[in-house]
Amino acid sequence: MPSSAVPDPTGPATPTGPAALSPVLPSPVQELSDERFGRRGLRLLLKRDDLIHPELTGNKWRKLAPNLRAAAGRTIVTFGGAWSNHLRATAAAGRLLGVPTVGVVRGQELADRPLNDSLARCAADGMRLHFVERSAYRRKAEPATLAAVLRAVGAEDAHVVPEGGSNTLAVRGCTALGAELAGRAGVVGVACGTGGTLAGLAAGLPDGCRALGIPVLKGGFLAAEVLGLQERAFGGRRGAWSLDDRFHFGGYARTTPELHAFADDFTHRHGLPVERLYVAKLLYALVTLAEEGAFARGTTIAAVVTGRPFPP
After folding, report:
1. DSSP 3-state assignment of 17?
2. Strand partners, 191
3. 43-47 and 29-32 as β-strands: parallel, antiparallel, unpaired?
4. Cα–Cα distance measured from residue 43 to residue 30, given in angstroms and rounded to the nearest whole number
5. Are 214 and 244 in contact (CB under 8 A)?
6. Rg for the chain (alpha carbons), in Å?
7. Rounded CA gap, 167 and 200, in Å?
């Protein structure tokens, strides 16, 4: 589908349109004075996507907005783990726009346990939670498995959004992030879960600017995922992008005392509360790469702040 056919996430408000929520776009850009970069002749900018909307923060807004418009008021069915930022954002969007939402949660064993804070927030926002066995969850993209899930939740005509929100609509929606940074930075760093934000960001950046993805999951599989997303969205690879797999700190939702200490220090230096599962790993990676001499003197680096700490 040509890009001109993609719903504009910032277009005119409709009864169920995300523009009715008054997002702050383009998101602000904030320069920090940090000697770890300054002494190497580098500038550090923060792309404050966490300020787009108080409940649909960061890349979740950019990926959800075009999907919300495409859903046109139909039930949205989506997928995630027990601590999924994406599930929380989808549930909040459903409450704000009056759109029914269903969250398919990895782990049938969780159905008999008290909801954690993240899933409790989803439920409070009106999301119906449907727990599935982990083996079935791994097959969620298979047509037969997906059809069975939709039947089980009574939503065969739903608009389906994949785990993490990364589909063709989302990738195209994230190109605006790259366009907003045109002329501002030579390198743009972003933490990556499913790769959709990186795929769109890189496609939206101008020539001469490159995107650096920091995966928060281990396994080294993300390059193929990002390339596949770009192929489906644009017909092939777009933009200059690369990944550095060294900074996952054990995998998704995993942290270490070292990472927490780094995030606390960053907050002390700059007054910015740092989200730990994505943003802290990105910032730690950029500081490490600066110390390794990975960036040429004179480079301006923009770090995309994709979310805020939860709970606030």
Report:
1. coil
2. 214
3. antiparallel
4. 11
5. yes
6. 19
7. 10
For residue 47 the two structure tokens come to: 């792309």
> What gap in Å lies between CA 67 and CA 101, rounded to an integer?
12
For every residue of 76-124, which 3-state class applies, written as one string?
Answer: EEEEECCCCHHHHHHHHHHHHHCCCEEEEEECHHHHHCCCCHHHHHHHH
Residue 158 is given by DSSP the state P
- The predicted-structure confidence for 25-75, as pLDDT tens digits, reads as follows 999 999 999 999 999 999 999 999 999 999 888 889 999 999 999 999 999
Q: How far apart are the C-alpha atoms of 274 and 260, rounded to whole Å?
A: 9
Preceding amide of 18 cis, omega within 30:
no
Q: How far apart are the first and last CA of the chain?
A: 39
SS3 309: coil
Q: Could you give the CA distance from residue 210 to residue 187 in angstroms, rounded to a whole number?
A: 5
- Report pLDDT digits (tens) over 227-269: 999 999 999 999 999 999 999 999 988 999 999 999 999 999 9
- Give the closest residue to 94 by CA, choosing from 16, 23, 171, 22: 16
Listing DSSP states for 232-286 in one string gives HHHSS--SEEEE-GGG-TTSTT---HHHHHHHHHHHHHH-----TTTHHHHHHHH
SS3 161: strand
